[in-house]
Amino acid sequence: MESYRLFYWPQIPGRGEFIRLAFRFANVTFEEINAIDSLQQLTSPQSDLANNPPHFAVPILEVTKDNDTFMLSQTSVILAYLAQKFRLDGEQANVNKEVTRWHVQQLTLTALDWADEAHNVHHPCGPTLYYEDQKQAAAEAAKAFRKDRIPKFVRHFEKAITSNSSLTQACRLIGDKTSIADLVLFQSLEGLYFAFPHAMQKSVAPNSVLLQFRQELAQELRDYLHSADRRRFNDGLFRHYPELDPP
Amino acid sequence: MESYRLFYWPQIPGRGEFIRLAFRFANVTFEEINAIDSLQQLTSPQSDLANNPPHFAVPILEVTKDNDTFMLSQTSVILAYLAQKFRLDGEQANVNKEVTRWHVQQLTLTALDWADEAHNVHHPCGPTLYYEDQKQAAAEAAKAFRKDRIPKFVRHFEKAITSNSSLTQACRLIGDKTSIADLVLFQSLEGLYFAFPHAMQKSVAPNSVLLQFRQELAQELRDYLHSADRRRFNDGLFRHYPELDPP
Predict the structure, then answer these.
(1) For chain B, which ranges sit under pLDDT 50?
(2) CA-CA distance, A86 to A22, in Å (whole number)?
(3) Among B85, B119, B141, where does a domain finish?
(4) Interface ipTM above 0.95
């Protein structure tokens, strides 16, 4: 049995939420550390991390088993690790397991890319400047994001769901069981509907499989989503600025 | 024995080069397909990809073994796959092999992030607009990138190399054998020195381990780097605009 500590910013769902969803869905407990000084200490080039390479940024996951401890950072790496542990890696009967695992990672990365691009829209000139100091560039970025990128991502994931050959009744990206790729896409969709409600409504047709997908995942995650633990979107990765999403 | 086909844009090194370095370093042959119509066909939401999920973008790797074929996309996923096949995953004596593999992936992702950020500097408002249409935002992005981000990445990777506890004489990120993380960092450094020569010179001290690292990797890769096959940087992922990197 392993135990886990997640180091991430307080309050915002952010990239930490992709990881929280994996724990919540798998019903595995973890401790979350939000103290800013701990986070800064772990990401400082001065800290001694024993046998771990340095971390560029949070989220960081600490894994303890017996008397061994190691740490991982980079959202997609943490997710791939947990997917394997929690059997969220798309395992299905009669299908090459190794290839499926790589395909789940591929779709996970693309769903994370969508979130990254949504972040870059409100911070086009970099993460170290305030939104208020890059509003004009953000307006340009948002225009291209709404016109070109949102529709491209929407069509991509619609295709992934409809071409899933194991599809029975359920809308899933790979196989018929929920994988880490589904959880990440769900969270990215939630963030996009929060940040760009008008653009999303224009790009996602009323009969899109993405709407059915979103409903099914919300149903599977309902206890957590309705709990006080679920963090609300505010000014993190996904942000709603009305001027970036006109009706 | 597997055979490989890499689908990527013609001419530019781009994200394909991270993958080419893995093949070249491991001395494994592969076929490269650069025909634009093939690439467009593989990334179109209309194409039938048999048992593969859709691809959002190139690079795409096709793997054939016996009579089975599958495809992977997302640079970091392709690299993780090849690292395992080609033993570029940081294997060392007396160290937990699984944890090492995740650490190699973590460092690979951060080196790819550095390349992504360098790309976003010349395309802050999105990949679907020309540089010429976003020059002012690019100038702002470049300023923050030179001032804050380049030094942060430099210090991060210096720390990774110096804290590598298996370090003997060689400068490597994990262990003392070249891993996929080393190859990706090498390529990102080459791109950054091409795109931002002045900023890099200011941020990398003359006695930095990164300079020794770069020399050692160049030596290991010398046959390929000096061959006609090695693609020169031009207007791809890494671009040199003098106005974005003043002396």
Answers:
(1) none
(2) 8
(3) B85
(4) yes
